[in-house]
């Protein structure tokens, strides 16, 4: 095994090519995998593992900001390729509405967008407020749209306080719907910010939303 790779990805795999920022190889492999009928969600998950390695290399100062930007651009292109295959698998309308956004101070949106794409493909209606969304905007849009679920995304440690402020404000305005957080978070963060649920995987988030929607009103 190549010493550059931690145990989780093998050289020559899609995840390793993402981690090595090999744009052409990644895009070619994604097109080939979809053409032979591979599960698009599995393809995204492998790319996500590569992105985690990019993050590790950035922390180890082996990559700089340019590496993060390049990785982000590769994943965005992967999503453009994968989207039609996902939409083909659309599986009905749940009627549930999700208010979504990346919290204030944070501009990471790739994971949020993947969740939004998968959620729409599974029949949820997603109102995506974008990135760097202040707590007051979440609260105002909540009042306007009255969604069934609120989803907050955050990848920075600095995102925890804006998540907490957003949830506090929503609760103060009378919102009782479940709040799910996603991104670089864990159970402790979930408790700190006052969210009801946390997920670190988009598909898990979709299943959770569908379960919560099923409980709604019945
Ligand atoms: C690409 C990237 C960037 C790109 C983002 C491009 C974009 N349009 O999003 C750019 C270059 C802009 C960037 C900037 C920065 N970044 Co950055 N970035 C990353 C990187 C490498 C990958 C993130 C990513 O897209 N992952 C792939 C997606 C698919 O995974 P995901 O986001 O976790 O999402 C999945 C789930 O979490 C879930 N999900 C996500 N959100 C939600 C929401 C809901 C409701 C649900 C249900 C599910 C869900 O679904 C997704 C699919 O399964 C991470 C490393 C990492 N470990 O994540 C660092 C990382 C997040 N960045 C980091 C840093 C430090 C920065 C900068 C501060 C760097 C700088 N010096 O400027 C800036 C901050 C800018 C800002 N204010 O936000 C650190 C954060 C450290 C920390 N603890 O705070 C990380 C962890 C890298 C590291 N190890 O140091 N970054």
Task: Provide a short characterization of the protein structure.
This protein is of the alpha/beta class.
Largest sheet, described in full? Answer: 5 strands, parallel
Number of strands: 5
Strand order of the largest sheet: 2-1-3-4-5
- The number of helical runs is 9
Give the SSE map.
Elements: H1 14-19, H2 23-35, H3 40-59, H4 65-88, E1 97-102, H5 110-121, E2 125-128, H6 135-145, E3 149-154, H7 160-172, E4 179-183, H8 187-193, E5 197-199, H9 202-215
Parallel strand pairs: 1-2, 1-3, 3-4, 4-5
The structure holds cobalamin.
Cobalamin binds next to helix 3, helix 4, helix 5, strand 3 and strand 4.
Give a structural overview.
The chain has 218 residues and is an alpha/beta fold. It folds into 2 domains: 75 residues, Methionine synthase domain (Methyltransferase, Methionine Synthase (B12-binding Domains), Chain A, domain 1, Orthogonal Bundle), CATH 1.10.1240.10; 119 residues, 3-Layer(aba) Sandwich (Rossmann fold). It contains 9 helices and 5 strands. Helix 5 packs across helix 9 and helix 6 packs parallel to helix 7. Bound molecules: cobalamin (B12). The site of cobalamin has 38 residues, from helix 3, helix 4, helix 5, strand 3 and strand 4.
């Amino acid at each position: 095994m190549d010493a550059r790779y931690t145990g989780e990805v093998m050289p020559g795999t899609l995840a390793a090519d993402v981690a090595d920022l090999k744009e052409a190889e990644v895009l070619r492999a994604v097109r080939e995998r979809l053409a032979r009928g591979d599960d698009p969600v599995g393809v995204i998950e492998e790319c996500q593992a590569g992105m985690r390695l990019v993050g590790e290399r950035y922390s180890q100062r082996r990559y700089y900001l340019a590496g993060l930007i390049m990785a982000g651009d590769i994943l965005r292109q992967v999503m453009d390729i994968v989207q039609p295959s996902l939409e083909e698998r659309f599986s009905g309308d749940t009627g549930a509405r999700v208010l979504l956004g990346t919290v204030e101070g944070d501009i990471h949106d790739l994971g949020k967008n993947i969740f939004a794409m998968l959620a729409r493909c599974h029949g949820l209606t997603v109102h995506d407020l974008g990135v760097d969304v202040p707590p007051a905007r979440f609260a105002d849009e909540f009042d306007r749209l009255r969604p069934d679920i609120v989803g907050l995304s955050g990848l920075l440690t600095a995102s925890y306080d804006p998540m907490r402020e957003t949830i506090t404000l929503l609760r103060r305005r009378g919102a009782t719907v479940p709040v799910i957080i996603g991104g670089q978070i864990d159970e402790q963060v979930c408790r700190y910010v006052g969210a009801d649920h946390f997920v670190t995987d988009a598909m898990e988030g979709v299943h959770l939303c569908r379960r919560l929607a099923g409980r709604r009103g019945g």
